[in-house]
Structures are given as C-alpha cells and as structure tokens.
Design goal:
13 helices; 4-stranded parallel β-sheet; 11 strands; 5-stranded parallel β-sheet; 35% helix; alpha/beta; binds phosphoric acid mono(formamide)ester; globular
Length: 360
C-alpha cells in the first residue's frame, strides 16, 4: 500500500540534548531497580552480565531438552505479551526473538512493515511505539534508522506506562542482541581452549556499514588480551568512532586489505556481507569484492580451532561447501541467538533466578 500522508513528526523537547550525550552518560536512563531495563547499546553490557547471560542461556537450553523442562519454561511468563515491530527485513532476529518469547510462555504480536500500520496515515513511529505499550509488556524493534530504539525507549520512559524496549537492529549503528549471541557463540566455540580471553578475531567485509561488527567490537572491552584484525576494502573500513573506542580501552587492533595474510594467525573469522541496503543507489554497488570472500582453499590456511562466524544472511562471501567443515560455526551461531534472547527476556522479567534454581 502506498503511503498517502506525510509523517506528522514533531519535536520531542529534550531529545536532541539527550541524544548528543556520550553513551556512558546515557546508559543509566535504561536501568531500573539495578537491572538493565531497555537494551539499546552494546556498551550497556559488562563482563559479569555477559558471563551470567551465557550461563543462563546454557541453563534454558538444557531445560528445553525435556518435555518437563519445556513446560516449566513455558509457565514462567504466560502472563506477559510482547510486540515484535520489525519494519526492516529480518529472518533470524525476528524468528529467534519470537521463539524465545514462546519458549518462556509469552504471547506475541507483530508488525512487519509500516504499510500495514497506521503510520501509513501519518502516525509517527514514536506514537506507534507508545500505542504498543498500551497493549503489551515488551517491545522488540528492528528499524532502518540509526538511534530509533534509543529514541523510542527514551520517549516511553517519560510516559506513565513504559515497557522495556529491546533493540533488534537500528540502522547501521547498533545490533546489541546480535553482539550477545556472537559472544555466546564464541565462548561456546572456545569452551575447551579457555574461552574468548586471549583470542585474536578477524572481522571481514563491509565494516563501515555493518552494525554487527560495530556492536561486537564494543563488547571486546570486557575480555582480557583480545586482539582485533579489521579486514575490509578501503571504501568499507571500520569507522573512526569504533577505533577511538578501542584506543580508549587499550584493545589492540590492526587494519588490512590482505585477508589471506592474516588467516593463519587468527582464532576466529567473523565474515560479513556488503550492506548495500544503505547505499543511495544499491544497484550502483555491483562490486562483490572476491578478495574478501572465504573460499574452500582457505580451509587449509586457518588454524584447526579457528571458528568461522557470520551473522547471516550470507550472499557469496562464504562458499557453501565450507558449511560442512566443523569450524563453520554460523549455523550454530544462529541457534545461539534464540537461547541468548530467551535468557535476556528471562533476565528482563526477573525469572532468571527460577531457571537457575531449577538446575542447582
Ligand atoms: N543477523 C541478523 O540480524 O539476521 P536477520 O537480518 O535475518 O535478522
């Protein structure tokens, strides 16, 4: 359906001032009763939170292996409802959040495009989100605009009926729950070799517009002796704000366009696709950058324990024949997404203690 009204966007007093503050000064606005309430930025997570959430996800996973355990999980939050507002395309984030909700007993509603909501009549996205809060206990959003989740959480927190907002991807800036599942995957892949501490990780592809590599880079401040290698064509190099963050937190990193040269030295390779949905004219970006693809010939060049990750969706940047190699972790990675998101929802609604007690 065509939009037949212009959006009637109005200014929110105080928003610009809030938005311009450094993230460190803003995170406290998204905490309630000593717990994270809204999940907006990867910078909200510290090591103890990350370790706890991974352990909670393991517990949920274990409980879900039996019918009795599944029933216990489903009876934790049957009185809660979640809204999935996904107005930018998604397969994994949408489905893993939806199924995470169902594992814990929450019922879900969804809007998957602005053409089927009253935004088509000119309602603003902020009023749309506020409307959801009238009906549900949790809002999970995916939006093409940077800062969208932050703004909606900020708006809701000034109303008399706020509900938690989980950022399922906001434009090219942040995808904090993807970073959580990436950490969970890396910790699991390295479980027998000391976990993520001390590892060297290559991030490859469109690092300029990829929100997953940005959010994951922020989380590296929580791990000891981690090194990063950014492998990207010159036009898609990692932005300076992330490099400044790494410098501030003394996280060593290097940049290169020579993918093959760093293959033998890294413990994980995090592949990404070219994010040309953010190009002004996507059709103009026909270059596929084959020198930044992982090919079968590379399998003999990487370490025997090297974990290959990709947030997916994939195009051509990983040869599908690599899927059969035990080091290909990306299908395990997308399954990790459902468990860590279930852990996050259990944490937000404070039923994590019941889950942990069940297995103690
Ligand atoms: N990784 C990820 O965000 O995938 P989707 O776009 O399919 O949700």
């Amino acid at each position: 359906m065509e939009k037949y009204a212009e959006q009637t966007q109005q200014e929110f007093e105080g928003w610009e001032e809030f938005f311009s503050k450094p993230v460190d000064e803003k995170v406290e606005n998204f905490i309630r009763n000593q717990r994270i309430y809204d999940i907006i930025y990867a910078q909200q997570f510290d090591r103890s939170f990350l370790d706890y959430l991974c352990s909670l996800a393991d517990s949920i996973r274990l409980l879900a292996k039996t019918k009795v355990g599944q029933s216990k999980l489903r009876h934790l939050l049957p009185h809660k409802r979640a809204m999935l507002y996904f107005v930018q395309p998604s397969t994994r984030t949408f489905l893993s959040f939806q199924n995470a909700c169902h594992i814990l007993g929450l019922s879900t509603s969804e809007i998957r495009g602005t053409s089927t909501s009253s935004e088509v009549k000119g309602e603003s996205p902020e009023d749309t989100i506020r409307t959801f809060a009238s009906y549900v206990d949790l809002i999970i959003s995916r939006h093409p605009e940077a800062g969208f989740a932050e703004k909606t959480a900020w708006v809701l927190n000034q109303t008399e009926y706020p509900v938690p907002v989980l950022n399922g991807g906001s434009g090219p800036d942040q995808h904090p729950t993807q970073a959580l599942l990436d950490i969970y995957t890396l910790e699991r892949e390295f479980r027998t070799i000391g976990g993520l501490d001390g590892k060297k990780i290559a991030m490859v592809g469109d690092l300029k517009r990829g929100r997953t590599v940005r959010s994951l880079s922020y989380l590296m401040k929580n791990y000891q002796d981690v090194e990063l290698v950014y492998v990207a064509p010159d036009v898609f190099r990692m932005k300076d704000d992330i490099k400044e963050f790494l410098n501030k937190h003394a996280i060593p990193y290097k940049e290169t366009e020579d993918f093959e040269s760093i293959m033998p030295e890294v413990d994980a390779i995090y592949m990404t696709r070219i994010q040309n949905e953010y190009a002004e004219n996507p059709a103009s970006e026909a270059e596929t950058f084959p020198q930044f693809h992982l090919k079968t010939k590379h399998l003999s060049m990487i370490q025997t324990h090297c974990a290959i990750l990709h947030p997916l969706p994939r195009r051509y940047e990983i040869d599908i024949r690599i899927d059969k190699d035990p080091r290909a972790a990306y299908w395990r990675q997308e399954r990790c997404g459902m468990w860590i998101r279930a852990a996050l929802i259990a944490y937000i609604f404070r039923v994590d203690g019941e889950i942990m007690d069940e297995l103690s």
